[in-house]
Amino acid sequence: MIDVKNLSKSFGDHLVLDDISEHISPGEKVVVIGPSGSGKSTFLRCLNLLETPTKGTITFEGTVITDPKVKIDQVRQQMGMVFQHFNLFPNMTIRKNITLAPVRTGLMKQDEADEVAAQLLQRVDLSDKAEAYPAQLSGGQKQRIAIVRALAMKPKVMLFDEPTSALDPEMVGEVLDVMKELAQEGMTMVVVTHEMGFAREVGSRVLFMDGGHILEQNEPRAFFDHPQHPRTQLFLSKVL
Amino acid sequence: MTFVEKFTLIFSNAKYLDSMLTGLRMTLAISVGAAALGLVLGTIVALVGLASSKNPLVKIPKLICAVYVTVIRGTPMALQLFIMAFVVFAIRGFPLVVTAIIAFGINSGAYVSENIRGGILSVDVGQTEAGRSLGLSAGTTLWYIVIPQAIKNVIPSIGNELIALIKETSIVSMIGMYDLTAAAKNLGSGQNLANYLAPMTAAALFYLAIVYLLTFVIKIIEGRLRQSDRR
Question: What ipTM, to 2 d.p.?
Answer without folding.
Answer: 0.93
